[in-house]
Amino acid sequence: MRQPVALAVAASAGDFAGFGFLGEADYAGYLARTDAQLRVLHGHGLDVHLRLLEPVDYADFCEEHQLDPGDPVARVAYAADPALAGEPFRYGGQSLAALLPALVDDHRARVRISLGCASLLDSLGWAEEPEQRLAGVLGYVSAVYLALAAGAGEGRHRVTLRSVGLLDGEVLAASAELCVAAGAPGPAGREVEAFCVTLAAAVAGCGAGELLLRAGRRVYGWALVDGYLRPMTAVETAAVLAPGEVARPAAGFALER
After folding, report:
1. Are 211 and 222 in contact (CB under 8 A)?
2. Given this model, what pLDDT does residue 62 score?
3. Are residues 42 and 128 in the same domain?
């Protein structure tokens, strides 16, 4: 069985400018060369995994592992880092330029997952029975997610969360698309995973904040109080909307049976 090939990609001209070792004078040339390389690898039947080559993160990785940032071995190690959160981002033969926005979104979701997991573990450290507390939090978040999908109805919706930890003042935020078909949520991608992990961290940390569900122009709201979601009134929902947002604020519906 062939081992997958891992490749880190600079996703913007600004990021590319910080990597003089990438071998091209301009970003367009770099993209063309990388695109051709990916197509060759994919054409040979290799499983290609991609990740974002983010300047600060890459510098920290090289410093931690005592690697030379200019050494190709360092880029391979960074791309294949087993500590990277979640399943790999697989290349399927698409144009690299068309693929980059999805790769950037994937990277941002991974960052939120890492931050959410770290915050969740910190919060569980205060619990007398952390394993039972974790099971309870995850069960609650799962029930909330299913209730949001059931209440939102068919279609593509958006859920957003903002929370401030009462113990440490840490701000947590996440957003995800919620797709509902035939009365059930669609496949959960990395963005949904990041949202659920962030919500779990906010619940475990007894955070305070709000969760909003945007279903068309209607926006439902819940207040996060002492680690639980309480339906807000339409007036309360309107009060936390962004200034100038055109929406129909609505009271949140029950999330627990």
Report:
1. yes
2. 92
3. no
Residue 165, domain extent: 119-251
Domain count, the chain: 2
Higher pLDDT, 244 or 141: 141
The letter for the amino acid at 233 is T
CA distance 121 to 101: 30
Burial of 82 (0-12, 13-18, 19+ CB in 10 A): exposed
Query: Is the Cβ–Cβ distance between 123 and 197 less than 8 Å?
Result: no
| Length, in residues, of the chain | 257
pLDDT in tens, 179-206: 998 878 887 788 999 999 999 999 999 8
pTM: 0.83
Is there a single domain that holds both residue 137 and residue 215?
yes
Among positive and negative, which fits the CA dihedral 73, 9, 64, 84?
Answer: negative
User: Does 227 reside within a domain?
Assistant: yes
Do residues 130 and 87 both lie within one domain? no
47 inside domain: yes
Place 24 in a pLDDT band, splitting at 50, 70 and 90.
low
